[in-house]
Write a structure and sequence with these properties.
Blueprint (H helix, E strand, L loop, with lengths): L1 E2 L6 E2 L8 H31 L5 H11 L1
Antiparallel strand pairs: 1-2
Helix pairs in contact: 1-2
Length: 67
């Protein structure tokens, strides 16, 4: 094992890659956030631009700033 100069602790040379199942489990909490944000990203800009007459760039900037 090699000693890391910053941490002064040994670590293995080869760290196994994450499996697809483990990556999916790490991404699972973000799924609910994505389900909430999807309608906002898809429908709100066109509603504000078409029905309310706001410029699409302004709507996009407002969404970007609010995130």
């Amino acid at each position: 094992m090699k000693i890391n100069a910053y941490h002064k602790q040994p670590f293995p040379k080869h760290v196994p890659a994450l499996t697809h199942k483990l990556m999916a489990l790490y991404g699972l909490p973000h799924l609910t956030h994505s389900m909430v944000i999807l309608p906002l990203v898809l429908f709100i800009p066109s509603f504000y631009a078409d029905d309310l007459g706001l410029p699409l760039a302004s709507v996009g900037m407002a969404i970007a700033v609010s995130r």
